Amino acid sequence: MENQKQLFNLPENIHYLNGAYMSPNLKTVEAAGILGIQRKTNPTSISEEDFFKPAEKVKSLFAELVNAPAQQIALIPSASYGLMNAIQNVPIKEGQHAITVNEEFPSDHLTLRHFCEKYQAELKVVSPPDFVEGRTESWTNQIIESITEDTALVVMSSIHWMEGLKFDLKAIGEKCRETNTYFIVDGTQSVGALPMDVEAFHIDALICAAYKWLLGPYSSGLAYYSEKFNEGIPLEYSWMTRKDSDDFSKLTEYPEDFGPNAMRYNVGEFSNFIALPMMQKALEQLLEWRPESIQNYCFELLNPLRDLLDQKGIEKEVDNRMSAHLYGLFVPDTIDLPQLMNSLKSNNIFVSARGSKIRISPNVYNDAEDVEALMGVLQKHL
């Protein structure tokens, strides 16, 4: 895969290695959003079928991206919304518990904690080992060993959002299947840049905010809910999620039945005439590129950085256990992290600090110059 910077409008004088914070707009996504704004200037241009058909198109594109049936996809406004839709519908028996991982993203942790408090269930947090090399495999094994028939659900991100560690989702999903445990995954920091297969990984619910690796707008997201959730209770009681809601002549019949499959979990007013066209353009581009190609591109791009870390004796996880699009640099205690971050920013290099790690998150709009600029500053501090 070749560099795709020409498809974005990033300023020439910055080195934006911070896609895990927020993606820049593709030019096509920006244009679709502007056109969406303009459409409402003349509301006669928006037909009744526009409330539903564009949403179905977006669902089908996302379904292809994660290998799921399109009818099991829902449109959501945020990861926390999508998580709550799933978690509140997990059955739990007396004496059962829930599992998550250490330093999980706040929305995931807080939603799960609320669930446990409601049902007076224990929330077990699986911590990583103290070492860096081999950290991911050891942590994954601890998670798998913690899952028993008394585990009602496991909630975790597809990769660790601070460190970029690639958990073995297939192995975790298989253990959850064996123990009748619900497996709920926050894919916000990987879906779009790293291959995802909900069938192969036995994922029961996959929740994704759109504004990072899906290259979509803020306050938008997509979720997969397996057939286990088809009779669940949604967060909202919108008219748009009801059976035959696309027939405007029947609106005041107030149907009780929800639409089929995951339709009940759509957010109210899901037919966002600005955000949906943006989301469609983003997903079409991602499917053209393919996540595996994005991952390979980012891996090659960061080869010089990994070589530098080896030369400097900086501990790092083995390459095949780290995501290439979100690479966590474990900063030694001898380094003044705030000072290093200030130095990077003063050189127009944009990354994130999360805990004691620097989160370096490139995408296809980055090139060798961006990595060289980053390394130039790192060398002075390392």
UniProtKB/TrEMBL annotation:
Organism name: Marivirga arenosa
Keywords per UniProt: Aminotransferase, Pyridoxal phosphate, Transferase
Domain Aminotransferase class V: 49-374
SUPFAM superfamilies: PLP-dependent transferases
Keyword Ubl conjugation tagged: no
Pfam families the record matches: Aminotran_5 (PF00266)
Taxonomy, superkingdom: Bacteria
GO molecular-function term, one example from the UniProt record: transaminase activity
Protein name: Aminotransferase class V-fold PLP-dependent enzyme
InterPro entries noted in UniProt: Aminotrans_V_dom, PyrdxlP-dep_Trfase, PyrdxlP-dep_Trfase_major, PyrdxlP-dep_Trfase_small
